[in-house]
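Project standup — Tuesday

K.O.: blocked on the structure for the chain from last sprint. Re-posting the sequence here as requested.
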Amino acid sequence: MKKPSYEQNSKTELTPDEIEEYKKEYGAVYEIVVEDKKCFIHKPGRQVIDAAMSASTKRNSLFNETLMRNCWLAGDKIIMEDDDYFMGASSQLDTVITYKTAEIKKL
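H.V.: unblocked you, prediction finished:
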């Protein structure tokens, strides 16, 4: 399923079938609820994380903004436009960046 860019995306909800398709493509889909608004984002890959890290060198909050814009699947765009909603949603983003546990052994 081709995901539209954030700017062209006007979807506010995802169907169960769409969620399943996005899970297959991205590994995980998350619903973030901020008071009476919500959005759906997918798990970011390395390219999105790299872009977010690069953007954050200009301004720290650009990390979260870049991450959300690039992973946005549907939702109330007020979350991206209103600072209070954005900060609420941003506080949950650390849970979407997941990785396996690694060990290192000196040989």
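K.O.: great, moving the ticket to review. The chain has a mean pLDDT of 94. The two ends are 46 Å apart (CA to CA).
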